Amino acid sequence: MTGMSSTRAPSAAWYGLAVLVLVAGWVGMGTLLATRLSGAADRMMRLVVPGEAELRLNQAGTYTIFHEYRSTLDGRVYDTPSIDGLDVTVRAVPSGRLIELTRGADSSYTFSGSAGRSLFDFEVSEPGAYRVAGVYADGRKEPQAVLAVDRGFIGDLLITILGAIAFAFGGTGGAIVVAILVARRRAKAVGAPI
């Protein structure tokens, strides 16, 4: 640290640097979580079922359909713990080709007042329009629920959480290192045993 020597004890104000490093790490964590989670939530495509929607899927790859059992869509709050009996289909537009749905890894999320769990994965070989539909096998219209569709959501969520943890630990670890260095320099300057 500039200005420190073995003959003169560094000012206690140097501990402020440790505090700044700590705060910066935790602010970085909070900022990363707030921006990335909010962006991930906004990126998801949603539809109310029973019903259908044509979605524009702009990338090839694996998409996941989530049952968002706690959700707010178009100003309406949905709290639907169960959608037993709901049949979900995905078709390519305009060919009408049925896309195979598979049970993927069991994953879930909770943030920003929304909560969901994965239902199905499906593969998109080429970008384009796809029609997602959900109907109850017995024809009933209730309960209404929200389905959310996204590509790579859980992976992005894990990367965001790991990045946030790195910010928090990095800030905390950096603050501890700075505090220890200042304490050692101060002890050495006054001739105390280190």
Give structural notes:
- The protein has 194 residues and is α+β, with helices and mostly antiparallel strands.
- It is built from two helices and ten strands, in the order H-E-E-E-E-E-E-E-E-E-E-H.
- It has helices at 15-43, 153-189; strands at 45-49, 51-57, 61-73, 76-79, 86-92, 98-99, 108-111, 114-124, 128-136, 145-151.
- Strands 1, 3, 4, 7, 8 and 10 form a six-stranded antiparallel beta sheet that branches. It has a four-stranded antiparallel beta sheet with strand order 2-9-5-6, with no helix packed on it.
- Helix 1 packs antiparallel against helix 2 (153-189).
- The longest helix is centred in the C-terminal third of the chain and has 37 residues, at 153-189.
- The radius of gyration is 26 Å and the shape is elongated.
Taking the sheet with the most strands, its summary is:
6 strands, antiparallel
Strand percentage lies at 35-45%
Q: What is the count of helical runs?
A: 2
Rounded to the nearest angstrom, the distance between the terminal CA atoms is: 18 Å
What is the typical, i.e. mean, pLDDT? 81
Structural class: alpha+beta
**Stretches where pLDDT falls below 50 for ≥5 residues?**
1-6
The radius of gyration over CA amounts to 26 Å
* Overall morphology: elongated
Question: How many strands appear in the DSSP assignment?
Answer: 10
Q: State the share of residues found in helices, binned by percent.
A: 25-40%
Helix-strand pattern, N to C? HEEEEEEEEEEH
